[in-house]
Design a protein that fits this description.
heterotrimer; A mainly alpha (about 300); B mainly alpha (about 300); C alpha/beta (about 550); A: about 300 residues; mainly alpha; MetI-like fold; 2 domains; B: about 300 residues; 16 helices; about 65% helix
């Protein structure tokens, strides 16, 4: 068989190429053109002068960031909270989706599914305020723990204080709670796409529930899990800004100052756009490295990744 | 769902049923617990919004309004801009979601084909955009020069494509049985025909998912309204809401003597606004749920 | 399926087309002005009222949400001037919105922002705003008749132009002529508790400590929840007003010494009081709440009466105070004598200065600069001030014996439901962008309780401190150094207050001072001194 030339192949798939190029053009305009703005990370940008007129300062803003004596603490907080969310927070929606799938009563199942995604719609500005009140030493959480006999009245704790001892945990729990049902949607959709004949065959073979979960459901949604995991790993440098901004205070600052908060305090609030952009660029580069690493690992382990 | 259940109950497997029942029991209890955890905060918000605004200032309302009042809702509905804001949000959600899902799916379909020439390059081009953004000011400058500033389309066009959503779509397209596409091609169908007539109808679960994500994003997005518009007539409902609830956060008054009544909105009015703006989008999910019912694909294969 | 899909597509496309046709891009038209020949001896707005215009007005405060055109006052102003205003207010982060508009040259017609914001000079330097004097010469010479000379003087730039006009501005002269200028800073105590412990003297560290302890002992709980002996303003990343700036003012810590800007943070009187608070903290009288709570939680706790005492801005508890007054007038917060320095000096509470609070500018994007300057003239004039402050004569107030008296039903709404008042009437400085408090003093009605006591208490102690208002230019070395120092202070202050021993306090404090020096505090002081001297010269002080 004679190999077709690239040009001929291109012509043959011209419609597909057209579809792809529509996306590429959009990316060019709405992603790549503004991306040129990254140069201000290496400049001293002032809002009243144009980007191009701003003087070059090289890596000064990066040095400024690294030289900050809070740098390592900030990194530790950012990665610490993200790791917790990744290791514990990531599997929860999967488990939830699997368990929900085992519910037989269709009405109940739908009800749970709808209920579970409700907290997603409460914005952090509102939820943060509610949580501060609940986590107060005289709030409901303490009331509950005292009522359950975990500790006496004297043991009431300021969960958001205590030098931030509980901060990471609170960040993890509140985030998981808020997004559990929402994040499960994608897995539920994936599960719904599984071929029913596989389950029927397995039932005939006498497989129990757990066996079906481990030998049919999980392998079938492996690809989705892998992709979302790779994306989650690459997002480790990001924090949930709204959440942390709302819950942080002067007592837990040592555990709650993450990169995004730092950029807000030192950059956005006073208009130091160059500094903010430099830190953003630093984050992006780390994220890209994480993505490539996670993708390679995922491909080796599960056979599926982004590419 | 029903088909599976029916088979399970009719099946002759007494063996697994004891363990299975315990599992089911625990599972149901667990799910009820989850329901409580998820519904309670909404309940809390609703109850507080139904309390008298002044009385709510002292807090401590958990299960039932202490002083029942619809005053907060009346106040919110009396706002003149509210209806227009709703209109803007509904328009941008409908148009934005339909366009975004179709456009993203179209590009995703092309990129799901392993034999697409230059696919690696396209994917790399897209991946980079997930990590590197230009930041607020360059984006602002771009929108302004494209004439999108203070224009309804600023809600639509920049949100028309999402590489992230595309990746999710691709992973679904890949799992579609290739036999269907092949048979259509043998019948002489081109790429566009295959996409619109075979792939899209088969991909309802993923389209519904992405539409949900997109719709919720469009409904909830306040940022575009904050930054890229200035006319009141273009203010989305969430921007309106955000302005009301976020005020206490940034009361940056001069610390000198200024006699200005900064009427911070009371808690119950904030919450009432939240309920009014959030409930409509919450109700969307049950309607999309039917698309998550499995078996669609088998049906297609069998037909 | 195909058919439906096609329908959807067609509908979407059609929608897009219509929208893109009707929506207009941000094209800049040339300036058009009214062709009426302006008589310089009469207000311009009177002469061009038939020529209507829409003006957009950016107000750099996210909490400002009084719309235009719904209430009595705004309707009346539109009727009298022909100007309809659309407010543009940022939701959330003000700096972000303002900076973006500056960077992309999309400023609305009028811009109001705090005088201390770096963007004021940014906009002037980038020639994005009109010189007001130029506009006034061209379109409304009457402007100069209503503008206060001293304020114009103060805001005149080196090029001889005036680009902005302040509100809430008081000149040193005003302070000499009026004895009812108030400060916002007060020391508040819960009335019933304070009286129950025998109205103790809280001006000395010893007296203060004894009072706190007595209050906590006698009232350990408020409605079942622990009493918070000392309340405070929100702790932010740059400190806590109650424990730094306001406290310093109560202790009369000077702003300058020997002709130089004084480092108030290391003043021995101030440090001594910080140590007093630390001792109270060590004994458990500084509740964790005050370090954690944000404004919303604090307002809740004020309403519950959970705090015994606090250094706080009186207008910030207005709504709560009224609510308490309505339900249980004994539990209101009253202003009493708070911490004093060891010499017992009078408090030095800052009132508003000639800088005022906000400044208003007219951007060069404005297509109707004539109407904009005329609107400013209107609002600055006595007629406009009366409108903004008192409302419409005969509808919201009557003149009785030459003095304005607010109608009873109007006053009742004002005192019970501010939001409703703004919706219906919109006077009482709801549109404060150009309020002239000094002029309005003449019409001020008798103060009403519970807020009146708080305001009156501040009268004897309110001083002019405008010469010490310092504004550091955005992203300058001084501003960046100051930012880092403030952040350092923000992390140090809670640690100081919660230090377990005086030794630990000293160590922390020394570390802060050292860190501050390494961050180049000197350039901040030098720049402050420079601005102080410049201000004094302009004001003709010493």
């Amino acid at each position: 068989m004679k190999k077709k030339s690239v040009a001929a192949k291109m012509w043959q798939q011209r419609k597909l190429q057209l579809m792809a190029w529509l996306g590429m053009i959009w990316l060019l305009v709405f992603a790549y053109i503004p991306m040129g703005g990254i140069v201000i990370a290496f400049k001293n940008y002032k809002i009243t002068k144009g980007i191009w007129e701003a003087p070059w300062v090289g890596l000064q803003h990066f040095r400024d960031f690294f030289a900050n004596d809070q740098f390592w603490n900030i990194m530790a907080n950012t990665l610490g909270i993200s790791l917790l969310k990744l290791v514990i927070g990531f599997p929860l929606p999967i488990i939830f989706a699997l368990l929900l799938n085992e519910i037989k009563n269709v009405t109940f199942k739908k009800f749970v599914q709808t209920a579970s995604y409700l907290p997603h719609f409460i914005s952090w500005v509102v939820l943060g305020g509610i949580l501060i009140t609940w986590l107060d030493a005289n709030g409901v959480i303490n009331d509950l723990f005292v009522a359950l006999g975990f500790y006496g009245d004297a043991g009431r704790t300021y969960f958001l204080g205590e030098n931030g001892r509980y901060f990471w945990l609170i960040a993890l729990i509140s985030d998981s709670w808020k997004e559990l049902g929402w994040n499960a949607i994608i897995y539920l959709a994936a599960i719904s796409g599984i071929d029913q004949q596989m389950y029927e065959a397995a039932t005939v073979d006498g497989a129990g529930k757990l066996k079906k979960i481990f030998y049919i459901t999980l392998p079938s949604i492996k690809g989705t899990i892998a992709i979302l995991f790779v994306l989650a790993v690459s997002g480790m440098m990001n924090s949930n800004f709204d959440q942390i901004f709302m819950l942080s205070n002067s007592l837990n600052a040592t555990r709650s100052t993450v990169i995004d908060i730092h950029v807000y305090e030192m950059g956005m609030r006073v208009g130091r756009y160059s500094y903010a952009t430099a830190v953003g660029l630093f984050k992006s580069i780390i994220a890209l490295i994480l993505l490539l690493g996670a993708n390679t690992t995922s491909k080796k382990l599960t056979g599926s990744g982004l590419y | 769902m029903k088909r599976k259940n029916a088979e399970e109950f009719s099946g002759p497997k007494v063996k697994s049923s004891t363990g299975s029942r315990i599992f089911d029991g625990i599972n149901i209890v667990f799910m009820i617990f989850i329901c409580f955890l998820c519904i309670y905060p909404i309940w809390y918000v609703i109850v507080n919004s139904l309390n008298d605004a002044k009385d709510a200032m002292s807090g401590g309302i958990y299960w039932w309004p202490r002083v029942f009042s619809l005053g907060s809702y009346k106040r919110v509905f009396a706002e003149s801009g509210l209806l227009q804001s709703f209109r803007v949000t509904i328009m941008k959600t409908l148009i934005g979601t339909v366009l975004s899902v179709l456009f993203t799916a179209l590009v995703g379909y092309a990129l799901s084909k392993k034999y697409l020439i230059g696919r690696g390059f396209y994917m790399a081009v897209g991946t980079i955009t997930m990590f590197f953004g230009g930041g607020l000011i360059p984006t602002f400058i771009l929108y302004k020069s494209l004439g999108l500033y203070d224009n309804f389309l600023v809600f639509i066009i920049p949100a028309m494509f999402s590489f992230y959503n595309m990746l999710i779509m691709i992973s679904f397209f890949r799992e579609l049985p290739p036999s269907l596409e092949e048979s259509a091609r043998i019948d002489g169908a081109g790429d566009f025909t295959v996409f619109f007539r075979i792939v899209l109808p088969l991909s309802k679960p993923v389209l519904a998912t992405i539409a949900l994500f997109n719709g919720v994003y469009q409904w909830n997005d306040y940022f575009a309204g904050v930054m890229y518009t200035q006319s009141k007539s273009l203010e989305p409902i969430q921007t309106y809401l955000y302005r009301i609830i976020a005020t206490a956060q940034s009361s940056q008054m001069a610390t000198t003597a200024v006699n200005v009544a900064t009427t911070t909105t009371s808690t119950s009015i904030k919450l009432a606004t939240m309920v009014i703006t959030t409930v409509p989008i919450m109700c969307v999910y049950p309607f999309l749920q039917k698309y998550f019912v499995k078996g669609m694909m088998i049906g297609a294969v069998k037909e | 399926m195909k058919k439906r899909m096609k329908q959807v597509l067609a509908a979407a496309l059609a929608g897009c087309m219509i929208l893109s046709m009707t929506a207009c891009g941000g094209k800049k038209d040339d300036v058009t002005v009214s062709d009426v020949k302006i008589d310089p001896d009469k207000p311009g707005w009177e002469q061009t009222a038939d020529d209507t215009a829409d003006l957009s007005w950016y107000v750099n405060f996210s909490w400002f949400n009084t719309p235009w055109g719904e209430n009595l006052v705004s309707k009346k102003i539109t009727e009298e001037t022909g100007v309809n205003v659309e407010f543009v207010v940022p939701a959330g982060n003000e700096a972000e919105k303002l900076n973006s508009m500056i960077a992309t040259d999309t400023l609305p017609d009028l811009v109001t922002l705090g005088y201390w914001e770096g963007q004021v000079n940014d906009m002037i330097d980038a020639e994005m705003v009109y010189p007001l004097n130029e506009l006034a010469d061209k379109y409304d010479p009457y402007f100069f008749k209503v503008a206060n000379e001293e304020r114009i003087n103060w805001y005149t730039k080196e090029d001889g132009n005036v680009y902005c006009y302040p509100n809430s501005s008081y000149t040193p002269e005003d302070y000499k002529n009026h004895d009812n200028i108030g400060s916002n800073q007060t020391f508040l105590v819960r009335k019933d508790i304070y009286e129950a412990i025998g109205k103790p003297d809280m001006t000395t560290p010893e007296g203060f400590k004894a009072a706190i302890k007595a209050a906590k002992e006698k009232f350990p709980k408020v409605d079942g929840q622990p009493l918070i002996p000392i309340g405070a303003d929100e702790f932010t990343s740059s400190g806590c007003n109650s424990f730094d700036k306001w406290l310093m003012n109560f202790l009369a810590v000077p702003y300058e010494k020997d002709g130089k800007f004084y480092d108030r943070y290391t003043d021995p009187e101030y440090v001594a009081w910080l140590k007093t608070f630390r001792e109270l903290g060590e004994e458990g009288y500084l509740a964790n709440d005050i370090f954690i709570d944000k404004r919303a939680q604090m307002e809740e706790k004020v309403t519950q009466g959970r705090y015994f005492c606090m250094l706080y801005q009186r207008t910030d508890i207005q709504e709560q105070e009224k609510q308490i007054y309505a339900t249980d007038p004994d539990k209101i917060y009253i202003a009493v004598d708070g911490p004093k320095n060891s010499k017992g000096d009078d408090y030095q509470l800052p009132g508003s200065s000639v800088n005022g609070w906000t400044v208003t500018m007219i951007s060069k994007n404005c297509k109707r600069p004539d109407k904009a300057i005329q609107l400013m003239t209107y609002l600055m004039s006595e007629h406009g001030q009366k409108m903004v402050y008192l409302g419409v004569e005969g509808e919201t107030y009557d003149m009785v014996d030459g003095k304005p008296v607010i109608k009873e039903e109007v006053a009742e709404v004002l005192n019970s439901d501010r939001a409703q008042y703004d919706k219906l009437y919109g006077a009482d400085d709801a549109y404060w962008m150009l309020q002239d408090n000094a002029m309005q003093l003449a019409w001020q009605p008798e103060l009403t309780e519970p807020m009146g006591q708080l305001e009156k208490w501040t009268y004897p102690y309110t001083v002019y401190t405008g010469q010490y208002d310092v504004t550091l230019a955005t992203d300058s070395d001084e501003a960046n150094a100051n930012l880092k120092i403030n952040n350092e202070w923000g992390t140090t202050l809670p640690k100081l207050l919660l230090a377990k021993s005086e030794g630990e306090f000293d160590k922390l404090f020394d570390a802060f001072v050292q860190k501050r020096d390494s961050l180049n505090y000197q350039i901040v002081l030098d720049e402050s001194t420079r601005q102080m001297n410049e201000a004094k010269q302009k004001l003709g002080m010493d």
